[in-house]
Amino acid sequence: MSDNLLSLAGWYLLPNLVTGWAQSAFYAIWIRAGDPKPQPGTQVFVKHRKRINIIVVLAYLLYTIYEADFQLRMAGNFYQDLGVGLGIDERGLQSRFRRLTLLHHPDKVASDSNRSIAEAYYVHLKLCRDILVDPTKRFAYDRLGPEILAWQKSTTIPDYMTAGIRNLFYYYTGTAGVLTIIGFMGYIKQAAFWRFLALASLGVFELHCLMSPEFPRLLTKIVNPVLTLIPLHPQFLPFQLLSLLRKLILTLFIAFSQIGPLLTPSTPAPPSEDQIQQQQLQRLGAIAGGLETQANMLMALEMTPFTDESDMRELRERLKRFLVDNTIRSNKEVRDAMGGVLARRRQGVPHGAAGTR
């Protein structure tokens, strides 16, 4: 149970921390120096964070599975300690133990400093032989593991089965209670029904493994044949398979509960009034900037023919004549005088004669 609590704490602390570090490292490597980086809260930043978080969670899931398998291999079992296969009979066990006695008996050790280590190792080998030679203890050990060594009052298969069922009840009741409390606290909200269904299915499978006289087919037909393909990887006993499945079920649901919301498209919250005003101001600023750019381009285009100095002087003279002509024509007295002159010309009256009269 304590290992499960530590695993839960690791799942809810490490992925978020590693995601932040990985995203910072990604921007530092991928984006060139001087280029703007996506700011927190923007769509690009959120999209990158989701993808990196999914990769981190999947990597941590694989690491958790490897760690559980590594711990089982390091812990070993009595068959590995004796160097025999899972299907060995009593005669083979006795023969193997005699050969180990010739190699590891404390009397074979010449140094007094190593004698205590040799004695402890030989006692352990003798314990392994005694457990596996006894059919009742071997049956219980294969399904329940080394914890049966503490059950001094259990002597028959029903005794071991009763103790094993009691431990199963305590484990699954406690695990269901912890998951329920975590759900009320707001964690692991997704797939609550399937989570408890998987937990109940695993409990039924453990009960079947405990009561069945044979190893489960999942172990003999799938798991152990696959493990034999891995160099130096030992085969698992039922209690090792069940220990691995316990961690797998828990970590898989935690991983899926963290990946699920990242894969689901989130509905954006409606913007507030301040955000709407800010967006409108930004839009107006963009429009004004675009208009100013276009006006400058048009002005530069219109002034292109007059970039030469001679063209500019000619333009000034033409503008001057235009202003003078426009000013004269807009004056009322000048228009009247010009109108009178034009009228006399039409009548054939000389300009000087009209003045003498």
Give your account of this protein's structure.
The chain is mainly α and 357 residues long. The protein has a domain at 2-75 and 134-263. It has 14 helices and no strands. Helix 1 crosses helix 10 (238-263). It is rod-shaped and about 155 Å long. The N and C termini lie far apart (134 Å). Mean pLDDT is 81; it is low at 353-357. The chain crosses the membrane at residues 12-31, 52-68, 169-188. InterPro entries: DnaJ_domain, J_dom_sf. This is Membrane associated DnaJ chaperone-like protein. Keywords: Membrane, Transmembrane, Transmembrane helix. Residues 77-145 form the J domain.
Would you summarize the structure shown here?
With 357 residues, the protein is an all-alpha fold.
| SSE string, helices as H and strands as E | HHHHHHHHHHHHHH
Shape: rod-shaped
Mean pLDDT level: 81
Main beta sheet: none
Show unreliable segments.
Answer: 353-357
Head-to-tail CA distance between termini: 134 Å
Query: What is the number of helices?
Result: 14
Percent helix: over 70%
